[in-house]
Specification:
With 167 residues, this protein is an alpha+beta fold. The protein has 7 helices and 7 strands.
């Protein structure tokens, strides 16, 4: 079942994010990896910055989490993770469809360029990779990330990005 994150979910979400993010270790550039992947203070900052997390819960346990954040004229899909023991069971797909239905704005998703499984997941759900020039412009316009992360990331969109870049 879907439900919005509440403060009592913080520890569960923190654990899911960091256990699922182990898949990035050795895939993303070593200088972008840290342990834990998302420290508690960083997760708290994301929530304070307006990332609204939604949870997939079964039998009282949170099995997946995905955030949504309105920035300017778009909605970003943020921090999408499923408990590793429950991956490939449709939880991420359910969360993505649910979050996409929450907005009429264009959706953008950023992820690591070398996380091919993540790129394929979003492509399977109708997102398209934007070209390198558009990616750089979009990441600088809608995200607040270090230059090194811009270099090593991709952006996927469910809309034509030329309109977003013209604004």
């Amino acid at each position: 079942m879907f439900r919005k994150f509440n403060e009592s979910d913080f520890e569960s979400i923190y654990k899911i994010i960091n256990s699922a993010a182990i898949a990035f270790k050795g895939v993303i550039p070593a200088d972008r990896w840290q342990e834990p992947y998302m420290p508690e203070d960083e997760l708290a900052k994301e929530i304070a910055a307006g990332v609204v997390f939604w949870c997939w819960e079964e039998e009282g346990a949170i099995l997946g989490v995905m955030g949504i954040q309105d920035i300017k004229d778009v909605t970003l899909i943020r921090h999408a993770y499923t408990d590793p023991t429950f991956q490939r069971k449709g939880i991420g797909s359910k969360l993505l469809k649910h979050l996409a239905a929450q907005t009429k704005r264009p959706l953008l998703m950023g992820t690591w360029a070398d996380a091919k499984w993540a790129v394929q997941f979003y492509e399977k759900h109708g997102f398209n990779l934007v070209n390198e020039e558009e990616k750089n412009l979009l990441l600088k316009k809608y995200w607040n990330i270090p230059e090194r992360q811009v270099e090593t990331s991709v952006v996927l969109s469910n809309t034509q990005v030329e309109r977003l870049l013209a604004i």
